[in-house]
Backbone:
């Protein structure tokens, strides 16, 4: 087992998609490897998974509201961003990818990601037809040009009943991608 995650501050952004349940597994894997994880749930993520799950896994409060400080007097978006040594968004829905590509800051997750100076990884997850849309592909390409790392999506069975590209990468694969990024950015954080 690699120790690259031990004592690392990880920011986990969870956006609203069926794959949000995999984010709990990802969070658990990170904590087991010794990472300190802070979680931001988007408003739509609350429709798929609750904060109690992540609070139990991390021992930390879950953040959702942009203007309700829980830990950081300067605002959650400042404290969470500056504390993070790596930020990962899993699942990264088409909406979240678009917000990021356009530099929007209309919720806590998008605002925090704009403040982040650490490496950023996204794990897209969506319907296969959504994934293939030119607008989504442009957004992903823009994020990659901006230095954002991407893992997945994968091909497989989707919750819409179809099989195709759009399935979120498995948590173990996301952890491996995170480790590669941290090893490659040894000077960060």
Residues:
């Amino acid at each position: 087992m690699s120790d690259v995650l031990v004592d690392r501050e990880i920011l986990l952004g969870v956006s609203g998609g069926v794959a949000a349940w995999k984010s709990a597994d990802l969070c658990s894997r990170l904590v087991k490897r010794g990472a300190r994880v802070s979680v931001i749930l988007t408003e739509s993520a609350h429709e798929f998974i609750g904060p109690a799950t992540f609070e139990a896994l991390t021992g930390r409060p879950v953040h959702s509201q942009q203007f309700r400080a829980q830990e950081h007097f300067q605002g959650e978006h400042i404290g969470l961003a500056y504390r993070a040594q790596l930020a990962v968004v899993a699942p990264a829905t088409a909406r979240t990818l678009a917000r990021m590509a356009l530099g929007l800051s209309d919720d806590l997750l998008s605002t925090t990601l704009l403040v982040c100076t650490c490496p950023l990884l996204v794990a897209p997850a969506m319907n296969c037809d959504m994934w293939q849309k030119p607008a989504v592909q442009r957004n992903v390409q823009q994020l990659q040009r901006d230095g954002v790392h991407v893992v997945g999506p994968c091909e497989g069975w989707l919750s819409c009943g179809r099989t195709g590209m759009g399935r979120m990468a498995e948590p173990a694969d996301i952890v491996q991608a995170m480790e590669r990024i941290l090893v490659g950015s040894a000077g960060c954080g």
Notes: Residues 9-184 form a domain with the Rossmann fold fold (CATH 3.40.50.1950).
